[in-house]
Amino acid sequence: MFLQDNRSRRSAADTSVNNAERPTHNSQQRPSGGGGDGGEEEEEESFMYGANSVIMLFVPVTLCMAVVVATISSVTFYTEKTDGYLIYTPFHDKTDDTGTKLWQSFANAFILLGVICVLTIFLLLLYKFRCYKVIHGWLIVSSLMLLFLFSYIYLGEVLRAYNVPMDYVTVIILMWNFGVVGMVCIHWKGPLLLQQAYLIMISALMALIFIKYLPDWTTWVVLGVMVVWDLVAVLCPKGPLRVLVETAQERNEPIFPALIYSCKCNTRYSSPMTASTESTRARNAVQALNTTNNYQTIADPDRPPGTATPNQRSSTNSQPQTQDEEERGVKLGLGDFIFYGVLVGKASSYGDWNTTLACFVAILIGLCFTLLLLAIFKKALPALPISITFGLVFNFATSSLVQPFMDSLAAEQVYL
Amino acid sequence: MTLMEFFGCAFIAFGPPFAMFIFTIARDPLRIIVLIASGFFWLLSLLLSSILWYAVVPLRTSLAFGLVFSVIFQELFRFLFYKLLRKADEGLKKVSQNVPDEHITPKDINNKHIMAYVSGLGYGILSGAFSIVNVLADMAGPGTIGIKGDSHFFFLTSAFLTLCFILLHTFWGVIFFNALDRKRYIFVAGVVASHMLVSCLVKFHTNESYYLISLITAYVVMIVMAFFAFITAGGSFKNIHTAFTCRKGRYEMD
User: Fold this and answer.
1) Compositional bias (Basic and acidic residues) at which positions (chain A) (predicted)?
2) Do B63 and A413 touch (CB under 8 A)?
């Protein structure tokens, strides 16, 4: 899962244009003078998408976390212990022995990681050999499952929690409309706002599934392992995600049905054609036009195991974006949304709001840092490591150190 | 009843800060970032004071110790955030100038009180949220307070004190930053002293009869600080007067 923004590629590629623009740009924008030397210009360029794009990611991330936290704290279904777990986690925290629990959690996490590795490499191979139809089928089936099955379960549990009776006819009509509109929006075309809402909803649902079906300790270890995996997969020269992005860039096409949330990307509605013909057409067109395209690839292929846990977040459809239609904007993989949601939801499942709040602030600050690094390095970056590390540190620090302090303060009505 | 109490107290504590957030901050991305960053600094100070409180085992029961050090840490981190903000000035300038967004204007940087206000509010909101959020969660719950002889006004007092502290932090932020800018360290000392004073005063109300006293003192300090912050930010009685008089259809101040 990583984070990238379109501005970066263009700024690297269109140096000539930018250089021509820069002097005037500088003089207009900074009447106070100041040194416009090379380093500073470079830096200035990199801040282009600064504050605004940060907020554009803050809002969806906040919404996603809010949905998860609200569900966790009002619907008991997602926190109560079950006998059913994901098949990837064979050990279920049944013992009380800390040592056993610890190694079992690590075993679970590494099995899960292995599944993710295998699936990512499988996806990479499919992509290398251009089996686009298989990938699309995979994504469509998984989003179908999320939109119909899991949201049906979710609806049922919410109704049960609030003790609202509802007949099957209404439920069927509701679910049918919800699901079909979602499929159309995500895989074909629809208003951007609606598509974003569906993406957030899907990530929240997936995060809830993880919270429910992963054993307690395993969740934390998985979050820790994902941080490392994300770093390796995106930053290593031979990391699978990096190879994937590079292949996509060589082919001048967006990473196949990209599993991404995009802030401002209105290109996809432009040409409602079938994927295969459209992609070939557009690919040729792009190559013919020029090579300095700025289309964006942010994907999140590093999703959790795709087959059984249909976490494939929506996919944008495969029509390549041509560069003039593309707007600037940062994109964030849906996997990042999911794991942020898992972290905050897990923190809130212990019932302490201070911990939830601390995790929330820590994740947002981590996202800020990641965007700052994105501005500096100008390449696809993993979005999980900083945020999740901050989140984990603050979760454990708050629940073990701050919480008793704040509890005794609140009981005595002492204000700091 | 519990639900009504929950909403009432939540709106008492967070109504005015929420309004301030919506009207002055929400439209401006840069201010939101500064708000969250300053909240994060408050979180760090809280973490540090809890570590200290947790580490010094013999004094864990007497909260006065933790309280004093917590106030010191909070002011320390306010100072650190001030330093960070002034260091980041150049960067903020770049961000705000290059984003093609009409809400961001260089006045955010030129008028240093704006960032001081935003960071003060961020500090306050997070500190207020941390002190009341668990109490609020209990409020909505199945239990009610006061059945076993405790004060019925516990929740209400908590809500009003939270509001008072959020506003106090905002004013402290404005005064503190300006004092550091102009090197008037007496005001810095004043902020630290009044923070210590309010926290310690509030700590000493042990039963219902003291609620009113501590509330009134806290609000008096708050009003004094509001006055100072208003003067610091360039306000005067003339300003208020001109703000409310209508001259030939023009509503803006000179």
Assistant:
1) 1-12
2) no
